[in-house]
Amino acid sequence: MRALLWCEGSPHETPGMAYANDVGGMHGFGDLPEEGHGFESVWEAQIFALNQACVAAGVYTLDEFRHVMERIPPREYYDMPYYERWLTAVERLLP
Amino acid sequence: MSGSGHHRNGELQARVNALLALAEERGIVTRAQIDERIEALGSSVSPLNGALMVVRSWNDPAYRDRLLYDAGAAATELGIAGGGYSSDIHLHAVANTAEVHNVVVCTLCSCYPLAWLGPPPAWYKSEAYRSRVVRDPRGVLAEFGTVLPDDVEVRVWDASAEARYLVVPRPPEGVEQLSEDEQLDLVTRDCLIGVAVPRVPVH
């Protein structure tokens, strides 16, 4: 259950990227962004709450949601703002 | 790199509106229930929940034991619900000691103990943090102003959909002179993620 990913003294290598979301250890993503609010627009909070509600209602599982989001092709994935990835996943799961 | 998307807000809002209408039509959730969830995210779901658990653990060794054994039950004990998604999410508390410092990430997406900390900050969701904190945790921590002695081991916990982590910081020196409310102010969101440590302000 517990996933201790990295500790000093353990051998670690930069892993290969299986999907666009799998960024642990990757280089080249630049600086940390400025502190921002949790949600910058109404639609972001709405898609967040809608996804919560769909999982709570058993429409799909959190794992299904993640899986669909992780299968967005890398080029599209990185062109999307964060919560558009969520929106895209819910669009594929809900209809 | 993901941008803010502000210039496409109209289009994105329209797509969300279509989904909200569909969800209501199917009887999954009403607009009013969506608004209630958003309201909760802005008020009752905040880092204060995690801070309450940490401060209780500083002042009550038996609670600390229960927190480290089963953090979800220890949260419920204080009336903090596990809320939001489902009972599949398990909270684990990882305690800092004189020898070990813990920090949390989700390398695969942005899994976060939202029910206990509120919505995650932008940097937690960024590829920059997620890629780098597992490779150079000391460097990332230093950017947050947290410079650890070389003899303190750093442990990086990778959260998943099912397992969420809450860092239990050590009580800072002089904390016993503070009231419980003052102690709560020291335990910030960043302390609970592990990129900061609580400090007693110098008067």
From TrEMBL, chain B:
The keyword Metal-binding applies. The keyword Metal-binding applies. InterPro entries: CN_Hdrase_a/SCN_Hdrase_g_sf (IPR036648), CN_Hdrtase_a/SCN_Hdrlase_g (IPR004232). Gene3D superfamilies: Nitrile hydratase alpha /Thiocyanate hydrolase gamma. Residues 12-196 form the Nitrile hydratase alpha/Thiocyanate hydrolase gamma domain. It holds the Pfam family NHase_alpha. Keywords: Metal-binding. This is Nitrile hydratase subunit alpha.
